[in-house]
């Protein structure tokens, strides 16, 4: 029990510091790293040299993540300086003039597509600045995109999370199908939770039908690809996100929207001009994002996975490169190349503070992994679970996602533990692995690394606590719901 409490200290310190006292991540992160380092050195199996070496590796990993933040922010700045965001905002008013529905559209189906195409936190890095560019509150934009980037993470990076993270232990198609049976209900709940915790309970007025349509649409498509079109299950998020974005955008365009019925606080402001009504201008302004999405998909599907992982440190590096290339192309598309130089200068100033926080957070994670603190957490939880083990698997996955910021890492770290547990308890390994897979995905919405990254992308570093407070309770509620559903699947529908 002592090891469990000690291993829990760095995690508790993050939540208390950032969400409880609103301390900035650049202050909390070094303190939490020091706690993990000393705990690993004094009470676990870590050596001073090993912990320092792995801490340095974490800082390097933080630099790679900051690279994608820099690229995403540069892209946003180019779009803003060229006036493209103003034209996009006006154009999107013809899809919907409701900020709530715009957030749902970009955070859930479009975010799902980005996660499936690239992974590496790309939805938060790209969709959140996009929402801010449309005039959204940056805290709302950050929280919404983190919540939206939960369910699709199970098939992030063209399915690598499930194919590799689950496929090493059970048949990946079976794991994907079972994950889809869990995640389809998560998709139905996500729009409800997003409106309730991001905007507030008053925000449901007048949009219940639209919330229901989005939830059922995304849930059904996710289930269909993962369970019916099983041969392309790796593309569950990528293809599902694309189809969902297309269909929901069409639905919003065709539905009759009464502008006066939208409360003023949720109304998307736009200027009435001929340019605003020009489809050509709208598509021209969006063209850098079209290019970005095409490049992400082409690179991800045409270059062997092993090369992408090896290239300069993996996903984050190549995704950042693709975003930056798109930003360069955008500056030429808008015929003002000097926008790029100005945008890069502005972006560099914004990301420097993020490097300190990101580096120390990942250094903390590495210390916890090397010294056995993460294993201590998982073993204690699993030993105490007993018959509740399927629910515990969701929680363990969530903790892994929270700590590491990657569902793939959480799956590879804890699935060996689950394989031992299912033998002892005589459980269906597929349902348990799927529970781990969905749990790791929802852990991403509260992961400090991801929170810092998205806050850096929308220029609100130091307000990470506000974002975590909006995403923490939805993450807990989803964990409980998915845990109960995993129990039902394990003992009733899909017993061994």
SSE map:
Blueprint: H1 2-20, H2 25-42, H3 48-81, H4 84-92, H5 99-107, H6 109-117, H7 122-133, H8 138-148, H9 156-165, H10 172-199, H11 208-228, H12 236-254, H13 279-302, H14 305-310, H15 315-333, H16 338-371, H17 373-385, H18 389-404, H19 407-425, H20 429-443, H21 448-457, H22 464-493
Helix pairs in contact: 1-2, 1-17, 1-22, 2-16, 3-7, 3-15, 3-16, 3-21, 4-13, 5-6, 5-7, 5-8, 6-7, 6-9, 6-12, 7-8, 7-21, 8-10, 8-21, 8-22, 9-19, 10-11, 10-20, 10-22, 11-12, 13-15, 16-21, 17-18, 17-19, 18-19, 18-20, 18-22, 19-20, 20-22
What does this 3D model show about the protein?
The protein has one domain (2-493). The protein is built from 22 helices and no strands. Helix 2 runs parallel beside helix 16, helix 10 packs across helix 22 and helix 11 packs antiparallel against helix 12 (236-254). By secondary structure, it is mostly helical. Helix content is 78%, strand content 0%.
From the structure above, extract its key features.
496 residues, mainly alpha, globular
